[in-house]
């Protein structure tokens, strides 16, 4: 029995409505939750008369940060440059390194211990040594950011390249595909969701790495601003810099998510969206 075309036309928007509501919920629900938390924070600070040097209210944080907005923008720009530079270096090195690790077991056995060694060293302890080695400039901060961001990206890329079904590889060999064609037409397209998972982790860790580097060696940046503000008991300003760092991490993460939805529409997460 065929459905009435008029009824089908009427029900079609109703079937699409849950998907539209779900997409809208991804935007307004986090905003509402954050707004409620900020209101509770403000009320608690006023009701319990919490001293500003311990926990400033959101209104005090906003007032202090807005008053220093020019300096905040300068320091924020410096941190953003460090984050992006370290992230781009990690991408440029991690992808070829992951291909090399998955192409040869000998290379993997030789390089994996070195990778683990670089991650076992505390970056806060390594930063002063890099300052002595590379000089008191931007380079040590970029290196620290790179060292913190690149490891999860290498692991995700390697996992994606190794997760290709054997049937696809056998089909490629049956079609007489070269190793380069196997990499570019089979392995990399299949591994792209894994790659973007690593990119999302790397961009978040790049913000952490930049702040760690600025704590040790910097004359500008939001991390340096937090250190100098707390040294002079300007706690609201330090909180403002901390919130800006969080916003920066969220925005950069969402930029990677948008790029993933454009370039990798076949990803499972994108299909659900």
TrEMBL record:
Topology relative to the lipid bilayer, per the entry, is: Multi-pass membrane protein
Subcellular location per UniProt equals:
Cell membrane
Residue intervals passing through the bilayer: 27-49, 78-102, 114-136, 142-165, 186-216, 236-259
Q: Please list the residue ranges annotated as the ABC transmembrane type-1 domain.
A: 76-260
Which Pfam families does UniProt cross-reference here? Answer: BPD_transp_1
Which InterPro entries would you find in this protein's record?
MetI-like, MetI-like_sf
Alphabetical UniProt keywords: Cell membrane, Membrane, Transmembrane, Transmembrane helix, Transport
Main localisation: membrane
Q: Which family does it belong to?
A: Belongs to the binding-protein-dependent transport system permease family.
Q: What's the protein called, per UniProt?
A: ABC transporter permease
User: Which organism was this protein described from?
Assistant: Ferrovibrio xuzhouensis
């Amino acid at each position: 029995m065929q459905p009435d075309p008029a009824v089908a036309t009427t029900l079609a928007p109703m079937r699409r409505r849950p998907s539209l509501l779900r997409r809208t919920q991804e935007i307004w629900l986090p905003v509402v939750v954050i707004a409620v938390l900020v209101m509770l924070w403000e009320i608690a600070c006023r009701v319990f008369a919490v001293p500003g040097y311990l926990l400033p209210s959101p209104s005090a944080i906003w007032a202090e940060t807005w008053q220093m907005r020019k300096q905040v923008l300068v320091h924020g720009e410096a941190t953003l440059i460090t984050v992006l530079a370290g992230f781009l270096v990690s991408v440029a090195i991690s992808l070829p390194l992951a291909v090399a690790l998955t192409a040869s077991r000998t290379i993997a056995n030789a390089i994996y211990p070195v990778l683990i060694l670089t991650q076992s060293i505390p970056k806060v302890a390594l930063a002063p040594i890099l300052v002595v080695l590379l000089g008191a400039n931007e380079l040590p901060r970029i290196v620290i950011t790179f060292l913190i961001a690149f490891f999860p990206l290498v692991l995700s890329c390697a996992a994606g390249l190794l997760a290709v079904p054997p049937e696809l590889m056998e089909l490629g060999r049956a079609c007489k595909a070269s190793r380069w064609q196997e990499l570019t037409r089979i392995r990399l397209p299949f591994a792209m969701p894994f790659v973007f998972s690593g990119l999302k982790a790397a961009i978040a860790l790049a913000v952490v790495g930049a702040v760690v580097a600025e704590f040790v060696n910097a004359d500008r940046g939001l991390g340096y601003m937090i250190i100098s503000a707390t040294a002079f008991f300007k706690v609201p300003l330090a909180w403002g810099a901390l919130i800006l760092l969080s916003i920066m991490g969220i925005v950069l993460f969402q930029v990677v998510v948008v790029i993933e939805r454009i370039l990798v529409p076949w990803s499972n997460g994108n299909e659900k969206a």
